[in-house]
Amino acid sequence: MQPLAVNSTSRPGALKITPFNGTVTVRFSDAIIASTERAKVLHEEGQDPVFYIPFEDVYFDLLEKTNTTTHSPLKGTASYWR
Fold first, then answer.
1. Rg over CA atoms, the chain
2. Whole-model pTM over 0.70
3. pLDDT tens for residues 10-34?
4. Is residue 60 part of a domain?
5. Closest alpha carbon to 56 in 72, 75, 37
6. Which pLDDT does position 3 carry in this prediction?
7. CATH number for the domain including 19?
8. pLDDT per position as a tens digit, 61-74
9. Would you say residue 67 lies in a domain?
10. End-to-end CA distance of the chain, in Å?
11. What's the rounded Cα separation, in Å, for the pair 76 and 20?
12. Residue 43 is part of which domain span?
């Protein structure tokens, strides 16, 4: 997992990253497309918490990368898979 910069929680739009204690399994239909015990939870002010899963724990052979990317000044550039 790429490290993320964490800003002070007193700043608007601040991020807080915490380890998740447990297993996160991502399923689509009957297929498991990711499973990890190393997930992190990103808490961003004004947003629902989001799980981040290490690339090594995603089964990319079941996914196809899209041409879509987005950029956040706080979180960097994201790529999308389907």
1. 14
2. yes
3. 455 689 999 999 999 999 999 999 9
4. yes
5. 37
6. 42
7. 2.170.150.40
8. 999 999 999 999 98
9. yes
10. 19
11. 21
12. 15-81
Q: Is residue 9 part of a domain?
A: no
Would you state the structure tokens that stand for residue 72, as one six-digit string? Answer: 């956040």
Eight-class DSSP state of 47: S
* Under 8 Å between Cβ of 27 and 34: no
| Angle at alpha carbon of residue 70, lines to 11 and 82, rounded to 5° | 125
Tokens standing for residue 82: 């389907």
Residue 33's identity, in one-letter code, is I
- The Cα–Cα gap between 5 and 42 comes to 11
CB 14 within 8 A of CB 45: yes
Measured over the CA atoms of residue 30, residue 31, residue 36 and residue 41, the dihedral's sign is negative
| The pLDDT value given to residue 13 | 65
Tell me if 75 sits within 8 A of 2, measured CB to CB. Answer: no
The answer to whether position 37 is within a domain reads yes
Specify the DSSP element, H or E, that contains 16. strand 15-19
